[in-house]
Write a structure and sequence with these properties.
The protein is mainly α. The protein has one domain (6-121): Arc Repressor Mutant, subunit A, CATH 1.10.10.690. It contains seven helices and four strands, in the order H-E-E-H-H-H-H-H-E-E-H. The protein has helices spanning 6-17, 25-35, 37-47, 57-64, 66-76, 80-97, 110-121; strands at 18-19, 22-23, 99-100, 103-104. Strands 1-2 form a two-stranded antiparallel sheet. Strand 1 (18-19) and strand 2 (22-23) form a beta hairpin. Helix 5 crosses helix 6 (80-97). The longest helix has 18 residues, at 80-97. The radius of gyration is 13 Å and the shape is globular.
Length: 123
């Protein structure tokens, strides 16, 4: 695995999942729910308090866009497959940790908490 700088990971993640410096997991969840079918069911499992359904790397590219995943990978200095695999592991955990009872919580604990998560998943 790679040893990714926390600041770089946070910056790349905020570019991927948000606008400017704010991360918008609501948009990600909305995209999953709008796809319907298994993706909507998957998002619901992450928001709920039960077990999280897994996400595949190909679903990451489908939801976020392969170009965006490629940009994310380049910023971190990893290949696209590694980035998609890392995101497929991290997104369910991230959404699960920032939701309760089926709803996203207001705060992610700032970019610091997110940066720590982002750097861990790329190691």
């Amino acid at each position: 695995g790679s040893n990714v700088d926390t600041g770089t990971a946070a910056s790349a993640l905020s570019n991927l999942l948000g606008s400017g410096s704010s991360i918008n997991l609501g948009d990600v969840v909305g995209q999953l729910q709008n796809q319907g079918g298994s993706l909507a069911t998957m998002a619901k499992s992450w928001l709920g308090d039960g077990e999280n359904m897994p996400m595949s790397p190909s679903q990451v590219s489908e939801v976020l866009g392969s170009e965006q995943v490629q940009d994310f990978a380049q910023k971190l200095g990893v290949d696209q497959n590694e980035a998609a695999a890392g995101l497929s592991d991290m997104l369910p955990k991230l959404i699960d940790k920032t939701s309760s009872g089926g709803n996203l919580l207001e705060s992610l604990g700032g970019l610091g908490g997110l940066a720590g998560m982002a750097s861990k998943f790329m190691k």
